[in-house]
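ingest -> validate -> predict -> emit
validate: passed (alphabet ok, no gaps, 549 aa)
predict: started
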Amino acid sequence: MKIALGQINTTVGDLAGNVDHMASTAREAAAKGADLLVFPELSITGYPPRDLVEKPTFVERSEQQVACLASATAGLPLRIICGYVGRAPSSAGKRATNSAAILQKGDVVFRQTKMLLPTYDVFDEARYFMPAEHQKLWVSGDTRVALTICEDAWNDKQFWERQLYRRDPVDELIAAGGQVLISINASPYHMGKRALRRKIFTTAARHHGVPLVYVNQVGGNDSLIFDGTSFAVNREGQVIASAASFQEDLVFVDLATNQGDQHQNLADECEAAYEALVLGTRDYIRKCGFRGVLLGLSGGIDSSLTAVIAADAVGVENVVGVGMPGPFSSAGSVEDARSLAANLGIRFELASIKPVYEEYLKTLDPLFADAPRDVTEENLQARLRGVTLMALSNKWGAMVLTTGNKSELAVGYCTLYGDMCGGLAVISDVPKTLVYLLARVANKRHPGAIPEAVFEKAPSAELRPNQKDTDSLPPYDVLDPILGLYVEEDASPRQISEQLGVPLELVKQIINQVDRNEYKRQQAAPGLKVTSKAFGIGRRFPIAQKYTE
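emit:
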């Protein structure tokens, strides 16, 4: 059986467009001799469709588009596996299913429904779908195929110390006589996830003694980035075919000969994270209907990295950097911002906020009376920059990209309606220490784009004389490990203190800042997820609450 792995980028809700893309891919696969073409999970609808599934018309159209794909490919000499939202067979419970269909000569010849519905981190499938009570094998000629949908193949007791579910669909299908395992997926990226997947599935292939085909979605959908990185392994767990990461790909594998295409992945995880951010930014902007973007260029490392990512995502001709010096901005910062724009080849505009800031103070000082200058005046500068960017966004029809990093967002070192203004928070899941590493990746791809002075200067918001981030925060190489253990691993203050060898009081102070600033994060622009736990849909804490560590 010659199998084609159809690693495609779908748009949520564009059912007809997705089907057209799948039909075109099917024609290419057939022309190259494929017997079977496998598409990712929910490839008809795009993943995740979220509350669109609650619309009865959405489910109906999903079913109709399965029939449209079958009709469009009826004359091709291959079978097709696709994912779709189906109607639940029972009158009780949820009305929809997460299902797969196998198409042949214009007909649906087999259907399978997902049994294990993930409801953790960014997943909320039990909210929408009715799980399968049982699954069956698809018999193709002399081959009995175990077809699973994403989570169904992630509950291997050989791999996890504690299983999430009592049932293991793969175990059950192999025990029933399955000879080949095919897993269709919409598995989001985070750093380290690609290696974890391969380890899980190569372990499963060896344990069950069957070849395995894993097909994953690629592309960005809102905050989630799907890396693709589809692959096939033989019964010994050796990778015999692999698709590229972060781009569409069509890969062929022959399970009879154990031969397949081997397309290069990004081995370095920083390179992969950078490429993930480019893909996520490109798809978010284009799928939301924008072409151009603008961002504030401060001359700092965060805005510099964001600018290079944006240029790679949508092209230098579609990016505008805006320098907005204030009363405490250094000449060096303005020059660094201007140099970055020139090196990168993006348009640069200068719009000083100083005159407007002084007028605001004249208006507000009588109301402030004799109150001393404090963070109020600092936030006012940030908010004037936000107003400037949003005005340009309205006038030019371009999306504003925010430039804050995960470390700042975690502890609230950012200003609501100021530097948090925008449509997409590109690096909001990138800790500050990782920002520097990704900026080196950016400069490797665009030699010298980010001036060396930007790497060397001490981070500063420049909202008061001689301000440094370390006036308010510990050094980032101290802060980031604390945040990583607390946010991503739910470690307690004492565990963090002991593991990192830092004072317990400092850990408690940082954790209190994280907890106190939940209200800010829930008003932030959507961000792109690249770590195992990002702020946003995968981390759901109440704002008004009294629990404290």
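The chain has a mean pLDDT of 95.
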